[in-house]
Amino acid sequence: GGICPLGAAGLQLLYGPWRVPGPVRRVGKRGAGEWEQISWDQAISEVVSRLSALRSQNKPEAVTCMASSDRGTVAQLFARFMTAYGSPNFIGGVSADDTSQIAMSLEQGERASVGFDLENAGFILSFGSGIIEGWGSPVRSIQAYGKWRSHTGNGGPTLVQIEPRMSNTAAKADKWYPAKPGTEAALALGLAHVIIKESLYDTGFVQSATSDFSEWREMVLDRYAPEDVSRTTGVSAKEITKLARSFAKAKRPLAVWGRGKGTAPGSLYECMAILSLNALVGNMNQPGGIWVMSDDNDMGWPRIPQDVVAENGLSQARLDGAGTDAYPLAKYRPDALPKVINEKPDAVQALLVHDADPYYTLLDSNEVARAFEQIPFIVSFSSYFNDTAAHADLILPNHNYLERWEDVPSPAGLARPVFGLAKPAISPQFDTRYAADTVMTIAKKLGGAVSDAFPWKDYPSLLKQTLGENWSALKKSGYMEQRPERPGRFAFYSKFQEPIELQGSSYVYPLTMIPVELIRLADRTVGNPPFCTKSLEETELKGGDLFVQVNPKTCFDYGLADGKHALLETPKGKAKVLVHASEGIMPGVVGIPKGLGHTGYDDYLAGKGVNANMFLGVVDDPISGLPATWGIRARMVSV
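Above: the chain sequence. Below: its structure as tokens.
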């Protein structure tokens, strides 16, 4: 329990054949894997030449930068570069944490992160959160589970899992409620109905620390009676009532939000319903509850100088629509970008990608592939030949995580802000450089105001200066805890939208396909090393074929056979898969693992299975503007 599977396979990430050994330039067709090694001076000169040309044409906004996050010094350096250069199009990744922040901006008047005190909770009600599947910080979540189970007798907390399939978390829970996918918000409000009607809520907390309860109470009592919620969710009214009472009467009850690993934004409606349960029982900002922490990303750096070109470029609307009148609450909308590019091919003339793999991770893979073909110049700063790097024109490789200094902001879901400092365990093994140093070098060679925005000598000195008086302590211990700065009163939000509708006709596509996240299968910025892939079950991957999980009743209804091939099709894509018949998933639901189907990397990973994102379209939440996609309608036929 001291390290996650991906970390345990870290030596393969360090020495594996998917490492980019030094700067390379594409010489063949994109994705063909044909490269020539070039010097760092050549690589940087080519980037500077391209970016200088766009600035001379007064088109700085035609440059876009995509990153996995905007947190930490390196991500903020890339964001700073984009602002100094003159483009509003720095686009960070989005997750359940982004949805939680928007929820808090509506419920507490200030954008804030939400932490869950798993370690001290007495009753954990998880709405599809894969607590032992890699949710939040995997090591922390697994250790919290171990702490729960170390209690003997009646002293340990209760874990209840709500989701349509028996994940590892559901299998290890004290109780599993298989609910229809997409109905989690209705179930949360059905529980609230019982708690309110039977006066089981914390009246003192509600009266002293919340607002707008009367209107929310009326909405819940009017629309979410257990009998109505039962028809929606498939959970009986009797079980809903029983669960509500158990949750409300428990010591330190905690409702956890964020499906799977918490990497998908999900529905704001669902997030707010679940967070409201915690407010209803008064378990906020105290041990065993949720902690709301102000979102502060200020590095204390000097103001960014801007010339006329930058000012004009920054006055242009963001390509992803985030922060506009249509989506004022969203900071970034990465999944919206491919459609924009496909509708307006000249919108992005150059794409810089740091610590992200959008070619693989964005929804609707076919749309993404078409968009990448429209972009004239793509630069990756990846340490690996991932899917995005494989379709780039230049790769300027970063040091591996074991080779570099870097600050580590608090992972999502922690109940206390924890700031970490990663230290090199080994000297760089290849001709790589800090991505931060590379982007600063590019800025300095562009000259003028862009260069003036980067007064630092190099990244290690910038990092030391930024951390200031904390540098010595962090260098010694590796991390430090910070006190959470909490926003004010919690406002119950009663303007709920209708649940997000799945794409596709139920007549043509009678099944519901949902993505499944496994702790042994990395599905974000870094792909699976061979050690992790070898640990997959024989009912998950066979040779190059991916298994999808299907209930035996569904197999019978649609003529599917266990272990045999079938064609899985949605409105967005289709592929041949293997059928794994299992009672561990609800009838009518198809579970497809995320993390396979790569086109990058090497023979150990490329070409194995299919990418779940090729089946999934983008469905935007009407309020947050983030993808609320949790599944899609599908059909399967035996082949």
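The longest strand covers residues 574-581.
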